Amino acid sequence: MDPNSYKEFLAQRRQEIIQKVHDACQRSGRSAEDVDIYAVSKTVGVPQVIQAMEAGYTHFAENRPQELVRKLSEFQEQGINPPPFDMIGNLQKNKINAVLGTAARIQSVSSVHLAEAISARATEKNLVVPVLFEVNVSGESTKSGFAPEELAQWMERLLDLEGIEPQGLMTMAPAHEPAEDRVTFRGLRELRDSLETNTAASLPVLSCGMSDDFEMAIEEGATLVRLGRIVFDPQYTPASD
Ligand SMILES: *Cc1c(COP(=O)(O)O)cnc(C)c1O
């Protein structure tokens, strides 16, 4: 697709997404200002990210540390200020240094071990990294993340860690099971509410909802939706509901 028509596509699709966010907020008595749209750019390159910025997107996310760092250095080489990129994918300990100081936030802090390792390295570097705790709400064995009761059990300890600033929770809905999606998103919000009631935690950010289920996620309280295909892929058609 030629660059101009791709840019037009991005801008028009963005208006459609904003409308859907707005409608979902209205259905659930929320304000559209309370929902941040993150463009997940893992399938596209820096030129497309720049076009997306021109189309109005301000926040981006990547699921692989190497690719996040690579995109940032490409921005630097071109002398362009990069937008903030959140890290949203599986993070191995040997990649922590790569994302410290580069990722705007780490949404995928999926275990106490990982939180402690990030804390130690961030403290060495005199950094405080905003983080979300990734929760495996649906309990699928293939999925990473804290079990809800595990997070509840460790919350005070996690709040004491230096070098990280917990801002909220993140989850992924189970694939191919729309009925389970809503239960998952609701479970994330209820877990957040109970953590705030039972500990000193303040966890305003709820990151859930992707291209196929973000409207439902918003109805259930999402404050941050992570959208990939629906933002960047002209071929993408939302599943009918
Ligand atoms: C790819 C990805 C997304 C976006 O998924 P789409 O279905 O393309 O919207 C969201 N979150 C994570 C963690 C991802 O890896």
Automatic annotation (TrEMBL):
Residue positions, PTM N6-(pyridoxal phosphate)lysine:
K42
MF-aspect GO terms: pyridoxal phosphate binding
> Which InterPro entries is this protein grouped with?
Ala_racemase_N, PLP-binding_barrel, PyrdxlP_homeostasis
Residue ranges crossing the lipid bilayer per the database entry: none
Q: Which domain of life is it from?
A: Bacteria
For this UniProt record, give its keywords in alphabetical order, as a comma-separated list. Answer: Pyridoxal phosphate
Instruction: Please name one Pfam family that this protein belongs to.
Output: Ala_racemase_N
Please list the residue ranges annotated as the Alanine racemase N-terminal domain: 32-232
Needed cofactors, names only, are: pyridoxal 5'-phosphate
Family statement: Belongs to the pyridoxal phosphate-binding protein YggS/PROSC family.
Please explain the role this protein plays, according to its UniProt record.
Pyridoxal 5'-phosphate (PLP)-binding protein, which is involved in PLP homeostasis.
By its UniProt entry, which PANTHER family does this protein fall under? PROLINE SYNTHETASE CO-TRANSCRIBED BACTERIAL HOMOLOG PROTEIN, PYRIDOXAL PHOSPHATE HOMEOSTASIS PROTEIN
Instruction: Tell me the protein's name.
Output: Pyridoxal phosphate homeostasis protein
Protein's organism: Muricaecibacterium torontonense
Lineage summary? Bacteria, Bacillati, Actinomycetota, Coriobacteriia, Coriobacteriales
